[in-house]
Design brief:
Number of domains: 2
Strand content: 15-25%
Largest sheet: 6 strands, mixed
CATH class of the largest domain: Alpha Beta
Distance between the termini: 34 Å
Helix content: 40-55%
Shape: globular
Radius of gyration: 22 Å
CATH topology of the largest domain: Collagenase (Catalytic Domain)
Structural class: alpha/beta
CATH architecture of the largest domain: 3-Layer(aba) Sandwich
Length: about 325
């Protein structure tokens, strides 16, 4: 009887908290409208949203959502949805919009709303359909098979939408060791050349090592772990193997090529470009408009720019979410 009363009491508190949250959100939006002083679009409105961000930015995930509700009214993309792809992406965005102000930078949302939205939404086209909030990322919530000391290495496979149109595979191993989850990608090259001026395997090993450092040492990785309180470590390990049976991907080598990532790599790719391509192997899609090559995405994101850019919160989120 006591446990039943406690359960009902907890449900009541949960309902009160939800009601309080909704009331608080509505109050914040109303306050934002009052603060506008009747102003419409323009620099004044952007200034007010920036002021709201300053007041709310240290208050946690709720505050990010409240700020976003205020800011997006000034930034909402008004373009017509021109094709089925954009209509589909808009539907996905509506389903996961609650994660948008949590994973994407406030400054980017405020100043480049449409591009930031595009970079955010494309990664939800994933065969893995669990998208928890990042503050759920705790060791106790990880799928038990990934932290089993008896079987510490597990395969992760799935598919994502590649170049916006067709399903393509991602594959890697996850190894649990010393409170760290190591994401491992092994790559085999089919036709490496060796000459007095060229050694493909040596060159690619050096570039892949630099790509691994990009994934492990980008400031966003540590900041993501700290902000959302992850109580486990993550690392990325990329390796060239000579036996195709050990590889997740086996690719040919050309002097120049645009890929795709799972069949052909170019000798002229930089370590940044390789970090982008390995992002596909880890299950991240291209954020740019792949048919025209138009950069309708957040320019600073590595998956928007294959020759520059950096890894961001949303990139790490979409790899780590598969642990849960």
């Amino acid at each position: 009887m006591v446990s039943k009363i406690a359960f009902l009491f907890s449900i009541g508190l949960f309902s009160i908290n939800l009601s309080s949250f909704a009331s608080e959100m509505n109050h914040t939006i109303s306050t934002c409208k009052v603060d506008q002083g009747g102003m419409e679009e323009g620099a004044e409105a952007q200034y007010l949203c920036a002021a709201q961000a300053d007041r709310l930015s240290n208050d946690g995930l709720r505050s990010k959502w409240r700020w976003y509700q205020c800011a997006k009214s000034y930034s909402e993309d008004q373009r017509q949805l021109s094709d089925q792809n954009e209509i589909e992406l808009q539907g996905i965005f509506e389903d996961y919009e609650h994660l948008f102000p949590i994973l994407m930078p406030q400054e980017a949302i405020q100043n480049f709303y449409a591009d930031t939205k595009k970079s955010f939404v494309v990664h939800f086209r994933d065969s893995f359909k669990n998208f928890p909030r990042p503050d759920f990322f705790r060791l106790r919530n990880i799928n038990g098979k990934f932290i089993n000391p008896i079987n510490p290495i597990n395969k992760m496979t799935g598919s994502m939408r590649y170049v916006g149109f067709f399903s393509a595979q991602y594959a890697y191993d996850i190894e649990y060791a010393n409170n760290a989850l190591i994401h491992k990608v092994r790559i085999h090259f089919k036709n490496p050349q060796v000459s007095q001026t060229q050694n493909d395997l040596q060159d690619f090993r050096l570039k892949i090592q630099e790509a691994q450092e990009i994934w492990n040492e980008t400031p966003a990785k540590e900041a993501f772990q700290k902000e959302f309180g992850l109580d486990f470590n993550t690392r990325f390990q990329f390796e060239v193997v000579t036996d195709p049976r050990l590889a997740h991907f086996s690719v040919a080598i050309a002097d120049t090529t645009r890929g795709p990532y799972f069949s052909e790599w170019a000798r002229n790719w930089t370590p940044v470009a390789i970090a982008h391509e390995i992002g596909h192997m880890l299950g991240l899609g291209d954020e740019y408009q792949t048919v025209s090559g138009k950069d309708d995405c957040l320019d600073q994101s590595l998956m928007c720019q294959s020759w520059r850019g950096e890894l961001m919160y949303h990139n790490y989120y979409h790899v780590l979410k598969r642990l849960f």
